[in-house]
Write a structure and sequence with these properties.
Elements: H1 2-35, H2 43-62, E1 65-72, E2 92-96, E3 99-103, E4 106-107, E5 124-125, E6 129-133, E7 147-149, E8 163-167, E9 170-177, E10 182-192, E11 197-203, E12 214-218, E13 221-225, E14 237-241, E15 267-270, E16 287-292, E17 297-302, E18 305-308, E19 317-321, E20 324-330, E21 334-337, E22 348-351, E23 355-356, E24 359-360, E25 364-371, E26 375-382, H3 385-393, E27 410-415, E28 420-426, E29 429-431, E30 438-440, E31 448-451, E32 454-458, E33 461-463, E34 466-467, E35 470-476
Length: 484
């Protein structure tokens, strides 16, 4: 009798383990079933699929992210009277009609006779629109010269630190700042393949100022996390139905003197990021990416930062601004927004925090992009470690920290189906533009975009105040780099 009871317990535990195993991978099975509706899963077929899905967990450890420098921004970012190419941070970046578009941005030209951290070295904002195309489409070796086009078109004003997103209609340019005030303007940048020139259209403005926010697109809906509203960080999310933009027979937007008119207020405010554990989730400098979680496409808000106090967040990052010390709280959380929840479901759900080797890690000013059918690739970001070392341990000022090594080098991947994080290899090193040492090449405070089958990281900030003009083409697993 006792033996029979033990057998029952053992079989019960085995069934429980099988149920837990299948439950773990059920979202992935659902995803593949939706993609391949004709799939018939037999007992042996289920076992094979489960083995395959288990292998995906270890696959990320073998995956390699490959970086190739394919050019740099043209001259013109060195400030008044200086013919040096510094690059910019906070540009609007995207691709339209197979042309790379980089617009606006800001940097710190160093006046002659001065140093980087002198008061005379001030931030300069730009209204330039740079556009590049490629020739035969193949990228060979470590570098390739892009074809940059001489365009006279400018943004309506100096602008940086807004958000941008690419669509068949063009590259959406949203908000930003000129260093004096923030904006809620929205524009559409397009590349005309006939005239070989960019075109700029004006769209209805956002209901709020948006600085240091993020944008992404699901189907025909543009989503914008506002970031700062000009006074403080916000948790606000807005959407724009792009089907309201009327187009001609060729898909070009119909505009009146460059203004795309809409008869209704097209921007809709969506539910804001909810409070979590009683804490306000308002933030700036977050990554915003759309990806499929195995059920449908969702908006993911990853990391970010906001000012805080050491009392509120003991692990906050100290930063010196002039003689004043402030603190940044680096968010490690991940939020998933469901545009169309079923009855009883919430719009927002908190997912697995950013983690490396099982430890949570905050990330700010990062660059992220959808990878494959269900992953999000994080190419760059600041985790605050260098600032903690400089201002927390070494007790130094900015001018005493010239050998800043750059920002967090490892690429990360989030699985929207498995709700888990993986770590890839380090980004390459590059020569510091003004100092005799190496820095990480994966710049922060820019926008990653997809060009053909390449992930593009254009310009950006490689250490505080230092920009890079480099354009990087990035592939995963070393697949052939091609713009075709």
């Amino acid at each position: 009798m006792v033996k029979n009871i033990d057998d029952v317990k053992r079989r019960t535990n085995q069934q429980k383990n099988v149920s837990q195993f299948i439950g773990r991978y059920q979202p992935k099975l659902t995803f593949y079933a939706r993609q391949y509706q004709q799939l018939v899963v037999t007992a042996s077929g289920l076992f094979i699929i489960l083995l395959f899905l288990m292998s995906l967990d270890s696959y990320a450890q073998q995956t390699k992210v490959v970086w190739k420098r394919i050019g740099e921004l043209p001259d013109g970012t060195g400030g008044a009277g200086q013919h040096v190419n510094l690059g910019v941070a906070g540009p609007f970046v995207g691709v339209h009609n197979n042309a790379l578009i980089v617009a606006g941005g800001a940097n710190f030209p160093i006046p002659k006779g001065h140093q980087l951290w002198d008061r005379q070295t001030r931030k300069v904002f730009y209204n330039t629109i740079w556009t590049a195309t490629q020739g035969d489409g193949e990228i060979a070796g470590n570098e390739r010269e892009l074809t940059w086009h001489d365009t006279q078109l400018k943004l309506p004003g100096d602008r940086a630190y807004g958000s941008s997103a690419s669509h068949a209609l063009g590259v959406f340019v949203i908000g930003g700042s000129d260093g004096v005030k923030g904006y809620n303007d929205v524009y559409l940048l397009r590349w005309n393949t006939v005239t070989k020139q960019p075109e700029l259209y004006t769209l209805p403005a956002l209901p709020t100022i948006s600085v240091d926010g993020g944008a992404t697109i699901i189907a025909n809906t543009l989503y914008v996390m506002a970031g700062s509203n000009g006074k403080e960080p916000s948790a606000d999310l807005y959407s724009l139905d792009l089907s309201l933009i009327k187009t001609d027979i060729n898909g070009n937007p119909i505009a009146n003197n460059g203004v795309i008119e809409m008869s209704i207020q097209p921007w809709q405010q969506q539910p804001s990021l909810p409070q979590s554990e009683g804490e306000n989730m308002a933030r700036t400098h977050m990554v915003v990416v759309a990806q499929n979680n195995g059920i449908n496409e969702r908006v993911y808000v990853i990391g970010g930062r906001r000012n805080t106090t050491i009392e509120q967040h003991p692990n906050a990052v100290p930063v010196l601004l002039g003689e004043n010390r402030i603190y940044f709280h680096m968010f490690s959380d991940v939020w998933e927004y469901n545009p169309k929840p079923h009855a009883g479901e919430r719009h927002w759900s908190r997912r697995a925090d950013i983690s490396v080797d099982g430890k949570r890690m905050g990330l700010s000013a990062g660059t992220g992009i959808a990878l494959g059918q269900s992953n999000i690739l994080i190419l760059a970001g600041s985790n605050g470690d260098n600032l903690r070392k400089a201002f927390g341990e070494m007790k130094v000022g900015w001018s005493d920290f010239p050998n800043h090594p750059g920002f967090y080098r490892k690429a990360l991947s989030y699985s929207a189906i498995n709700n888990s994080w993986s770590t890839y290899n380090d980004a390459p090193l590059m020569a510091d533009p003004i100092a005799n040492h190496l820095v990480a090449a994966n710049a922060v405070t820019t926008t990653a975009t997809l060009w053909g089958n390449l992930f593009i990281l254009a310009s950006g900030e490689v250490r505080p105040k230092i920009r890079s003009p480099n354009i990087w083409a990035i592939t995963v697993d070393g697949s052939e780099a091609s713009l075709k």
